[in-house]
Each structure stands twice: as structure tokens, then as C-alpha cells.
Amino acid sequence: MERSCIRSSKISADDAIKKFRALGLLDTAYHIEQDENYVYIPLIRHIGGSINHDFKPREDVFTGIEKDSERRGLKNTGAPYIRLGNSIIFKSSISRRIVYKYASRLKVDNIYVETGKIRGIKREPSLKLIYGSGGETIVRESGVSYIMDLQKVMFSPGNINTRSKMKFIDFTGMVILDMFCGIGYFSLQILKNSRPARMVMCDINPDSIHYLKKNLQVNRIKSKVDVYTGDSRSVLPVMQADYIIMGNFNSINFIVAALLRSRIGTQISMHYLTPTESMNSTQDVIVDIARKLGYVIECIENTKVKSVGPHYQHMNAIFKVSRIL
Ligand SMILES: C[S@@+](CC[C@H](N)C(=O)[O-])C[C@H]1O[C@@H](n2cnc3c(N)ncnc32)[C@H](O)[C@@H]1O
Fold first, then answer.
1. In this structure, what CATH number is given to the domain that contains residue 23?
2. What integer pLDDT is reported at residue 152 of this predicted model?
3. Do residues 310 and 166 share a domain?
4. 125: Cβ below 6 Å to ligand 1?
5. Same domain flag for 111 and 66
6. Which residues lie closer than 8 Å to 209 by C-beta, 6 or more apart?
7. What is the residue with the minimal CA distance to atom 19 of ligand 1?
8. Domain of residue 224, CATH code
9. 146 in a domain, yes or no?
10. Whether the Cβ atoms of residue 134 and residue 110 lie closer than 8 Å to each other
11. Fewer CB within 10 Å, N side or C side of the chain?
12. Ligand 1 contact, 208 CB (< 6 A)
């Protein structure tokens, strides 16, 4: 259905959505949509700079299912779920008798229910398959296909902006180290859009490495890549990287391994979890830790990725090594 909307670049979409929600202009009856380059934010009316876009109404799925289910006296319709490619994940249990309706209306192959938290350092999801045969899910995002088994490896839809941001940076000719590569969340965007001289990738979860290798093939990556399975503090080779990606909430515990593989000018993109009240100061603590280890680093960017629960923030800071003492 044609609606007014603001077309935003992926990098600024989060801020724009927040702004229009705060102004009461976001039309929540429609899905926010995206294509290769832009995010389309539905608005309740025309404003300066808005354009028309064909949106899918949110109610389609729910109204139909709710009507059917009410007639049959069934509960938990309209339960929150997230969609990842050809699969959906319900946050809480749902009557098995209406599950197939979601499958047919949303045209998905697999339906899972979250049974607990993401487990351990390998970040293994706790998902129960309640519809379909499971196995591989394919998520297409910003021109990259991510293949994975959602019961074996995690995929955070909330990190979309940080992943797609990678495609706007030119990494041509650089040596990149991805210390927690997973299935290639960040590095596939880089490899698809730039031609680094070398990409060294590591993850401790063998299932992630299995899907990473598959994703490198499916996305026809031609650059030189070296893949390591194990703890990035112990299995990584001696090297000097131009850019280091640390996509792990505990990256602070890996700072020695990262600094040892840096040189003057290296940029380190570090993800970390911090209490909300420290979200603008934790980066200074990291600078101090590096200093004590003999590395002068400066924080050149510190951005919020997403809120994690009511009191914590997932942040991404970029540090530049300016001196080695
Ligand atoms: C939070 S996940 C990455 C999520 C991802 N950034 C996204 O966008 O969805 C962190 C990854 O670090 C890996 N990991 C944890 N400890 C590790 C270690 N010591 N060495 C290497 N990889 C590790 C996990 O297996 C997991 O794949």
C-alpha cells in the first residue's frame, strides 16, 4: 500500500526511526522496509522530503490469524516474533495449532521458539524447532547472503547497521583481522565490497567456522582469507593488522591479543557492553588499559549499537593506535 515515507541511508536509519517515533510521525501499522541501499520509514503523513513507497501492512498477518483463532477459541496470537530470512523465532511459546498459519501467511520454512538465553562463550542459541525441518536459514542483508543453522549459531538482527556500515568503508589493500568472525557477520560485508590485501578470521565455535566457509563460497569471495578455529588469544598468527574487528561483548579481555597485532595507525573496532550510565566514559577506561600495556590509543568514534535490557548498552568504539611506548 502506497504510504508517505522518509528514505534514509542505512547508517542513519536508527537515529531517523527514533526521531520520527519521538515526534509521533512513525506509522506503526506498516513494516519498516529496506532494500540494498536504503531504509524506508513509513510516516502517518507527508512531511518535507518525504516520498511515496509501497509498504506491507503489519496487520495482514495478525488480523487474519487472530480472526481464525478467535473462532476456534485459540490463544497467543499476535505473539512477538523476529523474522530471519526464511525462518521466524517466537520470543515465547505459542499454540502449535496456529503455528502453521504463521508459516503459510509469512511464507517461511521454519518456526522456532526461544527456550532460554544465548549460551556460553560460543554464543549458542536456545531454540526449539516447532515447524518445518530446520537446518539452514538464509538471511540476505545489504547484498550479502548469510547461511546458518539458527539452532547452532547466533545472528543478531539488531546489529544490522553496524554490519552494513562495513560496506561504506574502503578496506582496499588493508590487512584485516576479525578476532570473533562467527559466520562472517562483519567480514563478509567487507570482502564483498572492498578488496583487502588479506583477511585473517578466527572463531572458537566450529559450527560458526563451518558456516563461514560456506558463506565465503556462496558469496563468491575471491580475496585472500585465512581462517582459524579456536581461542583468538592463542591460535592467531603473529601479524600486523591495519584494521582489527572485535565483535564480542567481552572484547576487553582480548585487548592484549589485539594490541600485539597492531602497529602505529592500526584501527581497532571494539564492541563492548556497558551500564547505561557509563556509555560515554567506558572508552576512556579502555584507553587507560592500553596505555598501561604500552600502547597510546585514541578513541575516534563511540556509537551505540543497541540497548541490551533496561540498564545496559551495546557500544562500538573505534580506537586508533598513535604510539607504541
Ligand atoms: C556475539 S558473537 C558475534 C555476533 C555478531 N557480531 C552479530 O552481528 O550477530 C561473538 C562470537 O565470538 C566467538 N568467540 C567467543 N569467544 C571467543 C574466543 N575466545 N576466541 C574466538 N572467538 C570467540 C563466538 O563463538 C561468537 O561467534
1. 3.30.70
2. 96
3. yes
4. no
5. yes
6. 203, 227, 229
7. 231
8. 3.40.50.150
9. no
10. yes
11. C
12. yes
Predicted confidence band at 113 (pLDDT cuts at 50, 70, 90)? Answer: very high
Residue nearest to atom 7 of ligand 1 (CA): 156
What gap in Å lies between CA 98 and CA 228, rounded to an integer? Answer: 43
Q: Which CATH number fits the domain that encloses residue 125?
A: 3.30.300.110
Instruction: Specify the pLDDT at position 132.
Output: 94
- Structural domain for 293, as ranges: 157-324
**pLDDT tens for each residue of 258-278:** 999 999 999 999 999 999 999
| Nearest C-alpha neighbor of 102 from the set 125, 139, 130 | 130
Task: Say how far apart CA 138 and CA 148 lie, in whole Å.
Answer: 7
Q: Does residue 152 lie within any of the structural domains?
A: no
Q: Is residue 168 part of a domain?
A: yes
Residue 321: the pLDDT is: 98
Is the domain of 227 the same as that of 192?
yes
Residue 149 lies in a domain: no
Contact 314 CB / ligand 1 (< 6 Å): no
In this prediction, residue 75 carries a pLDDT of: 55
Instruction: Give the pLDDT band of residue 177 (cuts 50, 70, 90).
Output: very high
Cα angle: 35, vertex 199, 251; to 5 degrees: 85
How many angstroms separate the alpha carbon of residue 183 from the centre of ligand 1? 9
Residue 73: per-residue pLDDT:
57
What is the rounded average pLDDT of the residues 67-79? 59
The total domain count for the chain is 3
The amino acid that residue 59 corresponds to is E
